[in-house]
Specification:
alpha+beta, 4 helices, globular, two-stranded parallel sheet
Amino acid sequence: MNRVLKFQISGRLIFGLGAVQELPGAVRQAGGRKALFVTDPGVVRAGVLERVETALRVAEVSCATFDRVEADPSIECARAAVAGVG
């Protein structure tokens, strides 16, 4: 099977060891004061979100989380996320 995959973002992608510590600076550099995490319950259970939220709160960046994303999210899931943080 011949497949073409494309990926485009309109910002920066920061990843790898130490990336969490760079997040507060990246938020500020983008002019932000708040962060919204949209994720699934597995990421929360794994403790990943806690490390990220801690790094931001220590740097006095406020956070909100929607952690009910399902596989192949429906429009209802997106509406619930908007309602939950709006």
